[in-house]
Amino acid sequence: MEIKTFGVGDILNMKKNHACDKNAKQMLVLMAGSDVKIKCIGCGREMIVPRIKLEKSIKNVTRKEN
């Protein structure tokens, strides 16, 4: 299994859609640690998810531009 690395400001493209919309697959990372705080780009809902569970759901990571 490949370890996905991401940081604050990165956009995560998920394998499955968020419940708010059938096209909402992108999440913005707000806080990274053992638990990760993410925000749905579609509806704006914020949630805290354990890193291990989140890493299994990520398809790919889009890095923030400096």
Which key features would you list for this structure?
66 residues; mainly beta; five-stranded antiparallel sheet; 1 helix; 5 strands; 11% helix; 39% strand
What do you see in this structure?
There is one protein chain. The protein has 66 residues and is mainly β. It has one domain. Helix content is 11%, strand content 39%. It is built from one helix and five strands; from the N terminus they run ββββαβ. β2 and β3 (35-40) form a beta hairpin. The model has no long low-confidence stretch (mean pLDDT 90).
Q: Number of DSSP helices? A: 1
Order of helices and strands: EEEEHE
Structural class: mainly beta
* Low-pLDDT segments: none
Q: Give the terminus-to-terminus CA distance.
A: 29 Å
- The share of residues in helices is 10-25%
Radius of gyration: 11 Å
Q: How many discrete structural domains?
A: 1
Strand content: 35-45%
> Which of globular, elongated, flat, extended, rod-shaped describes the shape?
globular
Total count of strands: 5
Strand order of the largest sheet: 4-3-2-1-5
The biggest beta sheet is recorded as: 5 strands, antiparallel
Mean pLDDT: 90
Give a short overview:
With 66 residues, this protein is mainly β. Helix content is 11%, strand content 39%.
Write the topology of this structure.
Blueprint: E1 11-14, E2 26-31, E3 35-40, E4 46-50, H1 51-57, E5 58-62
Antiparallel strand pairs: 1-2, 1-5, 2-3, 3-4
